[in-house]
């Protein structure tokens, strides 16, 4: 009987079917649950993304922290479709608490309760008590409007005082109005962004022949305070101030540094490095000479009694000049880079400008022309050539005498070619005080001097940087931040030969006939120094020609060749800045395309500009628009509005 039952195959199909139902039903249950779980999870993610975008828009419109969190929760739950909000949780991390660089982070948890999984567990040999819920976590990040760091690099040369084309106002006034309008436009948007620290910052870099970094930075670590830069002493002959003719007040070269030696120095200088700051600080003049009623004896009898009495004066002394804040251009390639200054690499340090006192001698022209910047007596150098007079150091430390003389301020004496107001570092314009400060700095600008666009642009880049000399910029790696250079000029790059400009009025008679170059410097002094400095053992020629191509003749000492050299520096600088992810916007103001030099500048400015991320070239819609504006006095205001709109587009929620 038992053997028969075992051999009977008639019920196998039903039995196999019953046995097969267990995995089949389990698979079906799991499939249904997986499909539903996936659907709910996607719905929750969609709701999370939508809530992020919507909440970000509320934040940039000025919602408070509490309002933003409540809005996010309500929006998320309203968009869950058929999911029960009780099965979800939402965590909101606001931008001001998130390390992601201005991002809103929403994290949601979905608790899924399976329909058939308990049954499947029973069919697979488990029990209904083993069934549990399933939880899924997901996050969504929304970048708010980009933070912006904008440097206004604005031409402050003398030509800015001319009338703007198509306008009855001078260019400088038009520029100030347009620049302040741009600050107001972006500040208004920034003031709504309560969730992001410093959403929009502006720096201001006025430039002419040089750039003023601020006299308060005299002792900054990035300044050359010990005279170790290879250009620091290029116009000074400290060796001529030795102990033989000047035993109490001489200079000694020790381990690459010139030191003040001898008993004649005051305690603020004795045994310390001799630098350009030393000259500013140690030069003295008679400020006042006050007659006193008492008498002094000028001659005595043999017995010692006074023979001749003479009324006397009391003298007060003051400095001849204080450093105005302008610095020289660093030697190539650091003049066109944002290289961090370091004393371990002396050429990267910044050197204060000091325009040497030039020769007292006049040339043989008729009428005889004085030197461009003859602001003190030459003294008595061992030799009397004009080059030696110009580099003669004892004259700066001589007895001031008894004659009352005036001090020299900006763009005069040793501060010649330092005509601009100081840089305004990056300043948060989302607060009223910051916006007011930037606009006040714009109003304070003064137009005078030549045009050195590459020097201005290089300093604009440095104000955007997170590293010294100005460190207010956000880290270059920070997400959601744009660094923007806006460069405006109304003329070609200029550097002048001595005879092509009038001399300083104090340089002597006939100053308005131009200056002489009896010292052979080949240029008036400015940020690039002299084209042929007194002593240049480091470079084969002046800094003007360093890094330039064969198209620039190194022995051509003409204004046109100087412009060519500066243009090459400008082009390389533009490429360097854009390679460092700096967005460059350029404006040519009232430049004339029929003038060769100005046309060259226009072309260089356009080539320097970045491509727009949003706007297409109206003449070729397949290409992005270049961020270059060919402006006139009549269009400048509208062009700045267009710049503001372009910058506003950078800050959309994404």
Plain-language structure description:
By secondary structure, the chain is of the alpha/beta class. Helix content is 28%, strand content 20%. The chain is built from twelve helices and 17 strands. The protein has a six-stranded mixed beta sheet with strand order 12-5-4-13-14-17, sandwiched between helices. About 2% of the residues have low confidence. Keywords: Membrane, Transmembrane, Transmembrane helix. InterPro entries: Tad_N, VWF_A, vWFA_dom_sf. It comes from Mesorhizobium opportunistum. Pfam families: Tad. This is Pilus assembly protein TadG-related protein.
Topology:
Blueprint: H1 2-7, H2 12-60, H3 65-78, E1 88-93, E2 103-112, H4 117-123, E3 134-143, E4 147-155, H5 171-190, E5 200-207, E6 211-212, E7 250-254, E8 257-261, H6 276-282, E9 284-300, E10 306-319, E11 326-327, H7 386-391, E12 424-428, H8 432-444, H9 453-464, E13 481-489, H10 559-579, E14 582-589, H11 596-608, E15 611-617, E16 620-626, E17 628-631, H12 636-649
Parallel strand pairs: 4-5, 4-13, 13-14, 14-17
Antiparallel strand pairs: 1-2, 2-3, 5-12, 6-11, 7-8, 9-10, 15-16
Helix pairs in contact: 2-3, 2-4, 5-8, 5-12, 9-10, 10-11
